[in-house]
Model the fold of this input.
Amino acid sequence: MRTATLPLFEVAPVATGAREDLAPGACVLRGFALDIATTLLAEVERIAARSPFRHLVTPGGKSMSVAMTNCGAVGWFSDRSGYRYTQRDRESGASWPSMPVVFAEIARAAASTAGFEDYAPDVCLINRYEIGTRLTLHCDHDERDRRAPIVSVSLGLPATFLWGGLARKEPQRRVPLTHGDVVVWGGPARMRYHGVLPVKAGEHPLAGARRFNLTFRVAR
Ligand code: SIN
Ligand code: FE2
Done:
C-alpha cells in the first residue's frame, strides 16, 4: 500500500492541482491558473487602461465597494436603471475590450476539467477588491443562457468565498481561495448564492494590496 500511495504525495503535497467538490456541478480547482497568473494580471492592466475600474451604482443608489470592469462582447453593468449587460462601456463610450485569448483558454480548460465541455464565454467581469472590500451574497441571474457554468479565477490576495445554497437563507460554507485558484459552478449549482468576505490586509508579490477576480459567463 505504501508504494501505491507514495506517488500521490509526491505530486500533491500541498494540494495544488487538487479538485475539491463543493456540490454537484461545483468545484474548486486549486492552483489551476497559477502558471499563467502573471500573464492574466498583465492583461487585466491592459484592459483597465482602456476601460478603467469603476464603482458601479446599484439600482438602489448605493456605490459598490468592489471596483469593476469587463472584457468580451458585452460587459456587466449596473446603475439606477438596473443590472444588465451592455455592448458598450458607458464611461468610455467604446465597446468593451475584447477578451484575450489566454482568458478564453483558461476558462475553457477549467470548465472542461470540471465536466463542462465546449465552454465559450462571451464576457469576463473583472472585480478588484481593495483591503476590507467584500461582495455581498448574491446569485448570478442576469445571463440569458444559464446552461453554461460560471468560471471564477482568483488572483492576488487571498479571500474567503461564501458558498451558499439555492435560497439566500441557506447556510454558507466558507471556502478559502488563494492566487491561482479557480472555482467552477454550473448545472444544478449554477444558481447557488455566493459572496466574498472582506479582504484582509496583506501584500501580494504580483498584485500588491489587492485581490482580483475574473468571472467568466455566457451572457447572451
Ligand atoms: C463574483 O461573484 O462575481 C465574484 C466572486 C469572487 O470574487 O470570488
Ligand atoms: Fe457572482
Helices lie at 2-11, 37-50, 101-113. The CA atoms of residues 4 and 112 lie 28 Å apart.
